[in-house]
Structure formats: structure tokens, C-alpha cells
TrEMBL record:
The lineage of its organism: Bacteria, Bacillati, Bacillota, Clostridia, Lachnospirales. NCBIfam families: ROK_glcA_fam (TIGR00744). This is Glucokinase. InterPro entries: ATPase_NBD (IPR043129), ROK (IPR000600), ROK_cs (IPR049874), ROK_glcA (IPR004654). The keyword Transferase applies. GO terms for molecular function: ATP binding; glucokinase activity. It is an enzyme of class 2 (transferase). It comes from Candidatus Anaerostipes excrementavium. Pfam families: ROK.
Length: 313
């Protein structure tokens, strides 16, 4: 094993780059703008230039670098090809081959959510486990599955798209994916706000502090629930039910040792976790009820940690 590796998390606005020791220590992290013009043709050359500059600055030779790992916001096939990435303007091409051509270093790529799950297993909330499912509760609901220490990508890199598990047949509004009734429509930060507004409109008899606000966020809903607001408490319970039921279904298929919960909404803490666990135990198959629940620990750096782990494999 060589001494250093680079982990890259490519986002629609910025690309985060981390220089690591291959034992898992993060030495330095920085970001560069993601230039999406001309179908994203500058993204990989910009990253390659940054890595070469950093190696020059630190006096690191290519012979000391294990490789470059990359998390990409789209499906990645097992051979390292991106299968269209709308957020970046990319079509179909091999991200791994292109990065190797640009730098002369080994390159590995994976879907960003899967790669973040790998990072949490390696150095975060899933440390000590080889079989985890990570759920990211943010603007949407993302996820990643780690089976026996490795990413489970699925045929087209779409495994772990937890947010698009169908939950309800009576939903009239569309999800961002085009379907109706996806988990993401109820259990994301945007989702809980949407269903809370719907609930308060339908139940005009229920008194709630939230009614007095012109607009509110998921964070405010959880804050009011902690203060005992009945409507907010009901909605937290509703989100817990949706997530608990979805995770119970997942456990029947992959039977993980741990569910690792991350994303901005996870900062709600125990009030959310207890609601999820209550319904998970209710719906889970008896042999899977003892699955551990953990919070993610690496925050926005999970992707670069996972990208490095990808290279070390």
C-alpha cells in the first residue's frame, strides 16, 4: 500500500478534494468550482490540475500515490463509466479511464451516495460493521448499501435509491423522479414541510404554533415537536412511520448489521431516531429486528473518505 491517496466528491456546484494518508487520516481538504459549461468537459481536467498542484506543493511523487477515488452524482456502471449525469452535463463515458489518462494515476469512481456510505463504514458511524445501509435525509432522501465491506451498486448503479421506494398509492403530487408516492415525498426535509402544511390545512381544528408562521423548515417542525406541539409531534411520528416501514422492507432484502442515518435532517437527533426505531420494530421481520441504528459522523466529508476507500479496494 502506497502512502497517499486522493478522494474527490463531485457536486453540481463544487468539487471537494481531500488528500489522505492511506491509513485513513485526512491531511487536507479543499473545494473548487464545478465548471459545467460545454457539457462538463472541464470538470475532470480541473480536478486533475488541482491534484497535480497539490502534489507539487507537498513534494509528493506519483510513486507515493495509491490513486484517485471519485464520488459522482449519478449512476456509475461497474466498469467505471458514468451513465449520463444530468447535474454535470455528462453523457456516457468512462470517468476512471479519463482521470487515469489525465493524471497517470489509478482512478476509481462510484455513485456519490454509495461512496458516502462506504466512507461512513470505513471511518464514520458504521465503523466496525461490514454490512450497513446508509440513509441520507436532506433535501431529498438518498442512500447506499454496503455488503461485506463493498458497495452494492446494482446492475445500473441504481441500488440504494431508497428515496424512491413507493410508499403510497393515493399521492396526487409528483416526486422529482416523476413518480408519485415516493418515500422522499414524506421523509425528506422538504417532504415533512409539505405533508405538515397539508395536515394543518386538512385539520383546521388542531392548534399549532406552526400555523402562526408564514413559512417554516423541517428544523422548526422538530424544534416545536420537542416543545410538545401536538401537530409537530404527529408529523415527526408520521415521518418515523414512513422511514421505519421502508427500512423494515430493506432489511428483508439485505439484512444489514446497522442503519446509519445522516444528512441535515438527522441533526434532529433522538426524537427522529426513536420514531424510526418504534416503527422499524413494528414492521421488521422477526429475525431482522435487532439491527443497530447509528448516526453518521463524517458529515459532508463522507464522500471523500469513501472515495479513498474505493481506491484502496
Amino acid at each position: 500500500m502506497k502512502q497517499y491517496a486522493f478522494g474527490v466528491d463531485i457536486g453540481g456546484t463544487t468539487a471537494k478534494i481531500g488528500l489522505f494518508e492511506t491509513k485513513g487520516k485526512l491531511i487536507e481538504v479543499w473545494e473548487i468550482p464545478t465548471r459545467k459549461e460545454e457539457k462538463g468537459r472541464y470538470i475532470l481536467p480541473d480536478i486533475a490540475d488541482e491534484i497535480e498542484k497539490k502534489m507539487l506543493e507537498k513534494g509528493i511523487f506519483k510513486s507515493q500515490v495509491e490513486g484517485i477515488g471519485m464520488g459522482v452524482p449519478g449512476p456509475i456502471s461497474p466498469d467505471g463509466s458514468v451513465l449520463k449525469c444530468v447535474n454535470l452535463g455528462w453523457g456516457v463515458f468512462s470517468v476512471e479511464q479519463e482521470m487515469t489518462k489525465l493524471t497517470g494515476l489509478k482512478a476509481k469512481a462510484g455513485n456519490d451516495a454509495n461512496v458516502a456510505a462506504l466512507g461512513e463504514m470505513w471511518q464514520g458511524g458504521g465503523q466496525g460493521y461490514k454490512n450497513i445501509v446508509m440513509i441520507t435525509l436532506g433535501t431529498g432522501v438518498g442512500g447506499g448499501i454496503i455488503n461485506d465491506g463493498h458497495i452494492l451498486p446494482g446492475m445500473d448503479g441504481a441500488a440504494g435509491e431508497i428515496g424512491h421506494i413507493p410508499m403510497r398509492d393515493d399521492e396526487e403530487e409528483s416526486c422529482g423522479c416523476g413518480k408519485k408516492g415516493c418515500l422522499e415525498q414524506y421523509a425528506s426535509a422538504n417532504g415533512i414541510v409539505r405533508i405538515t402544511k397539508r395536515y394543518l390545512k386538512k385539520h383546521s381544528e388542531i392548534d399549532s404554533v406552526l400555523r402562526k408562521k408564514e413559512s417554516y423548515t423541517s428544523k422548526e417542525i422538530f424544534e416545536e415537536a420537542k416543545k410538545g406541539d401536538k401537530a409537530a409531534l404527529h408529523m415527526v411520528d408520521e415521518v418515523g412511520k414512513m422511514l421505519g416501514k421502508a427500512l423494515a422492507a430493506i432489511s428483508c432484502v439485505v439484512n444489514p448489521e446497522a442503519f446509519v442515518i445522516g444528512g441535515g435532517m438527522s441533526k434532529a437527533g433522538d426524537i427522529l431516531l426513536e420514531a424510526i426505531k418504534k416503527y422499524y420494530k413494528k414492521y421488521a421481520f422477526h429475525a431482522a429486528r435487532n439491527t443497530t441504528f447509528k448516526f453518521a459522523l463524517l458529515s459532508n466529508n463522507a464522500g471523500i473518505y469513501g472515495a479513498v476507500k474505493l481506491v484502496l479496494e
